[in-house]
Amino acid sequence: MRNGKKRAASLLLVLAMSAGVLAGCSNSSSGGGGGNSDDGGAKDSIVIATANETPSLSPTEHNAVAGSYMNLLTYNTLFKSDMEMNPVPDLVEDYQNVSESEWEFTIKTGVKFHDGSEMTVEDVKASLEWAKTFPEVSLYNSDIVSVDIVDDDTIKITTPGPDAMLLNNLCHHGNAIVPKALIDSGHDFNTEPIGTGPYKFVEWNRGDSVVFEAFEDYFGGAPAIKNMTWKVIPEGSSRTIALEAGEIDFIVEVEAMDADRLMENEELEVLSYNATNETWLMMNNERPQFQNQNVRHAINSAINKDDIVTVAFNGLAVPAISQCPMVWQYPPSPSAPITLKAPPRRTLMSMM
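and the corresponding structure tokens:
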């Protein structure tokens, strides 16, 4: 499936939302490519197939969905998004908005990096300031005017004024916390990602796979799955076949046309939930014919989005009804401009 970028200057018209699908291993503890099982039948290794390869393992050198999967394993941020897309504390113990433009955050203690060092407020300050130097993630930290250390456990972030997006921005992988000593030494986080995340990087076989192992000192508790491999399989039906053959345990981005077949497979459990990725049609506003708003409205009205959902996405999508994803939108008004984007229905097939 293709996930459209959420921000594009020439974005004009959403047709329908893409169906994001994940698929997981069979009920049998002997099936799948993930390796060993303990006495209770639980696998200690997992192989995951994904369509796209990350452009970088550094948290600051990309803004790609494929890269965010990798970054979630190796890094933590001050906040993280819960299943309802709300920012909740991650590396933060407590926080308060002390004025219209000032926030104070108490940082968790005892958190270790993969290199064995312990996270401090100096690391937090250095990481947020370092992130601001990368254009790939500047959208998510441009509202941070300054970061100051209040005491051994507290930092203060100053924004230009009242800022409703700061906590959400602090969830972004671009603001991941890394060791100050490594920043100062010019460490390459792409070739050797060092963070506080639940998994440590092992190796990256470009074009094929990325391998991780559990971080036993993870502050949230050592992961039960000790070994994790992400296989890059660009072709959708090949990912499905690999899952059915037991070569992999879990799929990211299942082809919509394969969903029904996988749902009928009694060896798989299927779960569904709403997602926020979108697919759209883009027009070049620099072309004279598309500069006329009435032309764009006419094209929008002429396209049967329900048919596109049925045929192109096998029913696993939702037509767009407003400019904003429905998870965030206000009710559309009769005078609302051309439809732009909305979230799809995503199907998840998870491990038993």
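(Above: one complete record from the training split.) The first strand starts at residue 11 and ends at 16.
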